[in-house]
Amino acid sequence: MDARQFLAEFGHIANAPGGIGKLRELVIQLAISGRLVERIESEATASQEIEAAAELRRAYEEELDLRATRMHPPLHSKPFSVPDHWLWTRLEQICLYIQRGKGPKYVERSSTHVISQKSVQWSGFDLSSARFVADDSLGSYGKERFLCAGDLLWNSTGTGTAGRVAIYQPDESITAVADSHVTVVRLASCSPRYLWCVIASPWVQSRIEPSHPDSLVSGTTQQVELNTSTARALPIPLPPIQEQSRIVAKVDELMALCDKLEAQQQARRKLQNNLRQSTLQAVARATSPHELQTTWTRLAENFGRLFHAPEDVAAFKGLILDLAVSGELLNTEHSPTVTGSELLDAISAKRIEWSRKSEGQEQKEALAMLKKLRTQQVSIPEATTPEHWAWASLLQVSQAVVDCHNKTAPYVSEGIHLIRTTDIRNGRMDLSGTRKISEETYAYWARRMPPKGGDIFFTREAPMGEAAIVPDGEKVCLGQRSMLIRLFPDLFNNRFLLYVIQSPSFQTRMIEVAIGMTVKHLRVGGVEDLFVPVPPKAEQDQIVAIVDALFGMCDRYADQLSRKQRIATNLAASAMSSLTGIAIEQEEEPMKAPQTELIAPLRLGTAPDVKAQAPLATILARQNGEMSAKDLWQRFGGEIDAFYAQLKTEVAHGWILEPAPAEMREKPADAVSA
Fold first, then answer.
1. What's the CA gap between 169 and 181, in Å, rounded?
2. Per-residue confidence at 592, pLDDT binned at 50, 70, 90?
3. Residue 250's closest CA among 14, 26, 574?
4. Which residue among 91, 219, 548, 583 has the highest number of C-beta atoms inside a 10 angstrom radius?
5. pLDDT reading at 570 higher than 90
6. Do the beta carbons of residue 532 and residue 496 sit within 8 Å?
7. Which residues, in sequence order, are bridge partners of residue 131?
8. Does the structure show a pLDDT above 80 at 569?
């Protein structure tokens, strides 16, 4: 990637996740590679700087009666390309002094501060966290150990802290020493800010990792260590001292621009969040079907402007659920044939019939349910729902609510899935990594009520309030801190109840009744007492269909955002690698441009309902009803197979007119970009 291509892709790079950070890394790497400023022939050479440093170091060691530095062997290779008038040298050759601090004797207050790793931040040096060393121990400190303005402080231990570097610039009245976790680098004739750039560069920082093939640290990922010998031997790309000043000035200028760009992005993000919230609030506050349709239309037309990241879409899903379970997504002006109260009566009658016809353990559970219901006292809220809906406890709408009683698990390699709380996330049951139990263990643990497809597993602790439906045909066992909820499927839709549980309003109510100080959890009775809205079964089915359609739209858009972010991240990494020569690992290859293009036109048919799952027709409607298939595909943002599948669906509904047979043509060679 050359400079022209970089500028063309700048917007994608800057807007990628962590893109501004990549730009800052790029600036620093270009700076230490000699690609930010031009050479001035009349300036002193880098070799003269090294010679001057050697003289200054000898004088410094003599003055303080220090042992002469034993140098590492000269460098025989160049880590990366730099201008011909630069020199590669080791860090120790341009320094007066490099050494770790020492372990202090701490006191509450004294004349001398102790600088620890907390004081060394990427944002700069921070004295506020410094402690104090006892005055009566200062006699063991040589003069060289007292910090001087311009010293570089380099954190040398600890995962996440090792590698950070800051320049020591205190008030003149401050006296300080470093502790044993910080390496002090005192320069002879090099710019501290330039050396900061070298240490802060991706070339160095990527190697503060034990797994790196050219790692600078020892130890494990839990505790890394940068020893003094490695710091001394670090190769440094050294320009003449006057050129260093010009490099630093350019770096500071570009960093200020990055700061400004970052501030603008934050301001834009804030405006986008405000726009999304106001748009969503308008939907939530709609007081009539017409107003709701108007606000939904506005939302659909601006969908792309409202969401920046997949987590934004997740928040939107929460609003959909709250609207759905409060009846706001249905047109309830017609008179219902069945009310929520009548549905509860039907569930109660069905439960009594079940208790009479069942035998053995099932009958025991049925009778236990009836006993619980007779003694249950629940305060039903005065929440806003359609008049013909009702409110009821979770126990009242269920056929059975069963708690898990297993304590220990003799796991086996092959057997029945044991569903733990960690296997339930975001409304789904993940069977890929479950523990297994034997048939004998299952027969004992599930003796009260063997789970079956359609049952809901609900977690009451760690994490609390997750729920998922048991897939049909899967044999699973209820794990600890979970409960099984079985409904009468002909009377209550299990997916509607799942959406109720996932709704933010239900989650809020659940947290309010949870107990525990350290780990919040629900009692068994607390779960049974949770109240849920009860619409007629037909309306439950309608709500599920609407939510499924809206969630399908949300998931596609979230996938597009995730994909765009991955591509932008890889583009930023590729640009960094291409412009600096520093290899960056990527999760996947950037998307390549297709070698062919679609040329068939597509036209809008019957305009879809606002709640319909018709993203392609929605795009066409915003583009005067006609686009080329290629342009529509690109705006859709998905894979070509997904595009054709969606196109087929919308043509079948009449939302898009039947297109002429699609044609594809080879793109000219110069039109294909990598």
1. 19
2. very low
3. 26
4. 91
5. no
6. no
7. 114
8. no
Rounded to the nearest 10 degrees, what angle do helices 310-325 and 537-580 cross at? Answer: 170
Q: If you search the block for the tokens 């790309």, which residue do you land on?
A: 237
Q: How far apart are CA 545 and CA 493, in angstroms?
A: 11
C-beta of residue 226 within 8 angstroms of C-beta of residue 156 = yes
Residue 98 near residue 91, CB atoms below 8 Å: yes
| Secondary structure, 3-state, 8-30 | HCHHHHHHCCCHHHHHHHHHHHH
C-alpha span between 216 and 632 (Å, rounded)? 50
pLDDT of residue 5: 55
Residue with tokens 């063309």, as numbered in its chain: 8
Q: How far apart are CA 486 and CA 455, in angstroms?
A: 5
Six-digit token pair at 169? 């610039």
> Are 567 and 591 in contact, with CB atoms under 8 Å apart?
yes
Residue 178, helix vs strand vs coil: strand
The number of CA neighbours under 13 Å toward the Cβ of 447 is 10
3-state SS, 237-282, equals EECCHHHHHHHHHHHHHHHHHHHHHHHHHHHHHHHHHHHHHHHHHH
Contacts of 70 (CB under 8 A, 6+ apart): none
How far, CA to CA in Å, does 67 sit from each of 57, 60, 62, 64, 100?
11, 10, 8, 9, 15
Reduce the DSSP state of residue 144 to 3 states and report it: helix
Q: What is the largest CA-CA distance in the chain?
A: 103
The per-residue pLDDT for 242 is 95
* Residue 450, token pair as written in the block: 């063997």
Measured CA to CA in angstroms, residue 242 lies from 29, 32, 65, 69, 339 at distances of 19, 14, 31, 27, 85
Place of tokens 């309902």: 609
Spatial neighbors of 601 by CB under 8 A, at least 6 apart, are 626, 627, 628, 629, 659, 660
pLDDT of residue 6: 57
Q: What is the 3-state composition of the chain as percent helix, strand, coil, each rounded to the nearest 5? A: 45, 15, 40
Q: Are 187 and 198 in contact (CB under 8 A)?
A: no
Among the ranges given (162-166, 378-382, 469-473, 596-600), the one the predictor scored with the smallest mean pLDDT = 596-600
Do 176 and 166 form a contact (C-beta atoms < 8 A)?
no
Helix (H) or strand (E) holding 65: none
Q: How confident is the model at residue 672 (pLDDT cuts 50, 70, 90)?
A: very low
Pairing of strands 152-155, 182-187: antiparallel
d(CA 57, CA 186): 10
Strand partners, 133: 106, 112
**How many whole angstroms separate alpha carbon 498 and alpha carbon 496?**
5
What pLDDT was estimated at residue 587? 44
To 5 degrees, how large is the angle CA 69–CA 122–CA 229?
20
CB atoms within 10 A of CB 210: 17
- The owner of tokens 């239900």 is 506
Comparing CA positions, the residue from 555, 503, 194 lying closest to residue 319 is 503
pTM of the predicted protein model: 0.62
Mean pLDDT of 535-559: 88
User: How confident is the prediction for the chain on average, in pLDDT?
Assistant: 85
